[in-house]
Design a protein that fits this description.
- Helix 5 (about 80-95) runs antiparallel to helix 9.
- About 45% of the residues lie in helices and about 20% in strands.
- The protein has nine helices and nine strands.
- It has two domains: about 10-65, Orthogonal Bundle (Arc Repressor Mutant, subunit A), CATH 1.10.10; about 70-245, Beta-Lactamase (2-Layer Sandwich).
- It starts with 8 loop residues before the first helix and ends with a helix.
- The chain is an alpha+beta fold.
Length: about 250
């Protein structure tokens, strides 16, 4: 959630520069200046600083994100030993079901995929680092169902309920009802709510103190995923993960 303490304008501008370069998949200085409505001289100073700290590279006249972001991301997703435990079990579950299995955590009101296990070498890890809104993903709904109404409201207040497909939940009260159903059955379902043709079933993973570590989900085309087949295997895997984490 947002911290409403003092924010440094120069730092915020540098981060906005990075966001623009990422969104445009590389950009020239004048393009960045136009996107942010700032002078070229101002953008030049930020670009120089970011390059000097190895966060950006310049190819011709275009600026791109540096590989240092990959290094920092790897550090972030391996900083907790629990993540390694989850990945090992997720790999086994993917082999058992012959389906894609992803582990997501939540940061700043969205879910982000940390590990993505599947048996297709061409798709290996293709979702890693991808952000999803929490109201229309199985992982997100599984985690939201573990939270208080107040915390759920803070997420909605920040990100809204964007309707990305015709199946997306776009009403606050409807989401509350869906989270209640998720609590009752013990797992969340994404019925093509984020992407057409993609269904997912997810379960929250909790720490020994009851807090949410993240969520594990199994995804695939609706015609291939069966709740009757997936849910028992998913629950058993999450139980093993939580037992192993508690025994550390």
């Amino acid at each position: 959630m947002l911290d409403h303490g003092r924010e440094l304008t120069t730092t915020a501008t540098s981060l906005r520069v990075i966001d623009v370069i990422n969104r445009l998949d590389g950009a020239r200085m004048n393009e960045i200046a136009a996107e942010l409505d700032l002078a070229n001289s101002t953008i030049h100073a930020h670009l120089t600083t970011l390059r000097n700290h190895e966060l950006l590279v310049k190819e011709g006249n275009e600026f791109h994100l540096g590989i240092k972001f990959f290094h920092l991301g790897e550090q972030a997703r391996q900083r907790k030993p629990e993540y390694g435990i989850v990945r090992r079990h997720a790999h086994k579950l993917s082999n058992q079901l012959n389906e894609e299995v992803a582990f997501a955590i939540t940061e700043h009101g969205r879910s982000v995929i940390i590990f993505d296990e599947n048996n297709d070498a061409a798709k290996e890890g293709f979702q890693v680092g991808r952000y999803f809104h929490m109201h229309n993903s199985a992982s997100g709904k599984a985690m939201l169902a573990e939270w208080s109404r107040e915390r759920v409201d803070r997420v909605i207040d920040r990100w809204g309920l964007p309707e990305e497909t015709e199946n997306t939940i776009g009403c606050r009260e409807e989401l509350y009802a869906e989270l209640e159903r998720t609590r009752e059955r013990g797992y969340a379902v994404n019925r093509q709510e984020a992407l057409e043709g993609l269904m997912a079933i997810g379960t929250a993973i909790t720490n020994p103190d009851g807090s949410v570590l993240g969520s594990l989900d199994v995804s695939g085309p609706p015609y291939r995923l069966s709740e009757e087949q997936i849910v028992p295997e998913l629950r058993e895997t999450v139980s093993r993960i939580e037992t192993e984490i508690a025994s550390q």
